[in-house]
Amino acid sequence: MTASSSYLSATADAYDAVADIYADFVRDSLDRQPLDRAIIAAFAELVRAAGPRPVVEAGCGPGYVTAHLRDLGLDASGVDLSAELIRIARRDHPGLRFEVGSMGAVDAADGELGGLLSWYSLIHTPPAELPPYLAEFRRVVAPGGHLLLGFFESDGGPVSQFDHKVTPAYRWPIDELAGLARKEGFVEVARMSREPVEGERFRHGRLLMARPDHA
Predict the structure, then answer these.
(1) How far is CA 73 from the centre of its chain?
(2) Helices (DSSP H) in the chain: which residue ranges?
(3) How far apart are CA 215 and CA 211, in angstroms?
């Protein structure tokens, strides 16, 4: 998949414009969310158990989740469209590798990764354009490897656009997003929903998927 869609440059420009403010806002967000840390820890444990393969955070932003994966014992790196967010990630986490690029064209060989984390990075993708990203994730994740998606849930309604503070984004029904991932060759391992806390507007969804050993 190539990074040819016009929304990609618009998304990159939008995050570049607010990179420092955004990084300050999200930097300690995992510290306040034990349920989020729990499912990321489960993802990390499953990846470690499958063998010593690297992981990529696709859409890593300022790199705080990539650093958390490193602290959980993973060989983690990150990629993001925003050059300014990558600048901040490199500054804040100098021991990790961060690259500017599209999560639709991950710099990894077929089946190279033990896992891939997409933490709120698919939310800006127009629904019709989402399946190729999931296909790219399947390409780079090894058989037996895992995929973790974090996103905003649509609370039982259809896929819906909302006024994200940086650039337009989408809320997804968890069943529909899981179905798209299954069509691209993943199987569901677990799912989690959590209600919004103070300062949040929407329910949050997490999908933990695996690429089967035979696929």
Answers:
(1) 18
(2) 6-17, 19-26, 34-50, 64-71, 83-92, 131-140, 174-183
(3) 7
φ/ψ of 137, rounded to 5, equals -60, -40
CA distance 146 to 114: 7
Q: Along the 215 residues of the chain, how does pLDDT read in single tens digits? A: 344 467 888 898 888 899 999 999 999 999 989 999 999 999 999 999 998 999 999 999 999 999 999 999 999 999 999 999 999 999 999 999 999 999 999 999 999 999 999 999 999 999 999 999 999 999 999 999 999 999 999 988 899 999 888 888 999 999 999 999 999 999 999 999 999 988 888 999 999 999 998 75
Model-level pTM? 0.94
- CA 158 to chain CA mean position, Å: 21
Query: Nearest to residue 105, comparing CAs of 150, 60, 140?
Result: 140
Cβ–Cβ under 8 Å, residues 120 and 171:
no
What tokens does 92 get?
């804040």
Which residues, listed in sequence order, are joined to residue 117 by a DSSP beta bridge? 57, 148
Identify residue 111 by its one-letter amino acid code. G
